[in-house]
Amino acid sequence: MSTWGSNKEVERRVEQALADYDGGEHNVALLSRRWHVPQMRIHRRLRGTPSQLGNKNSKKLLSEPQEIALI
């Protein structure tokens, strides 16, 4: 397990940090310390990068049409 905890736990805390960000606290370093999450993860979520937990295709190398073409 990482120093931050499991990915599910970290993502839950990132969501809480983002809610604080939307509530007016725009200091990412402070949010990172308050919610015990990596600063870069907060930055990535603010830029729109999705979580790997919700992305079923994160390890998929071929698209559906490419996979069908191989069969």
Structure in a nutshell:
56% of the residues lie in helices and 0% in strands. The chain contains four helices and no strands. The radius of gyration is 16 Å and the shape is elongated.
Q: Which structural class fits the helix and strand makeup?
A: mainly alpha
Mean pLDDT across all amino acids? 87
Overall helicity: 55-70%
Q: How many domain modules? A: 1
Percent strand equals: under 5%
- How many runs of DSSP E, i.e. beta strands? 0
Radius of gyration in whole Å, from Cα? 16 Å
Q: What is the N-to-C order of secondary-structure elements (H for helix, E for strand)?
A: HHHH
Question: How is the biggest beta sheet arranged?
Answer: none
In angstroms, what separates the terminal alpha carbons?
A: 38 Å
> How many helix segments?
4
Report the principal-axis shape: elongated
Identify low-pLDDT runs.
none
Topology at a glance:
Blueprint: H1 7-22, H2 28-35, H3 39-47, H4 64-70
Helix pairs in contact: 1-2
Protein name: HTH psq-type domain-containing protein
Region (Disordered): 47-71
Describe this entry's structure for a reader.
- With 71 residues, the chain is mainly alpha-helical.
- It has one domain.
- 56% of the residues lie in helices and 0% in strands.
- The longest helix has 16 residues.
- The radius of gyration is 16 Å and the shape is elongated.
- The mean pLDDT is 87.
Keywords:
4 helices; HTH psq-type domain-containing protein; mainly alpha; 0% strand; 71 residues
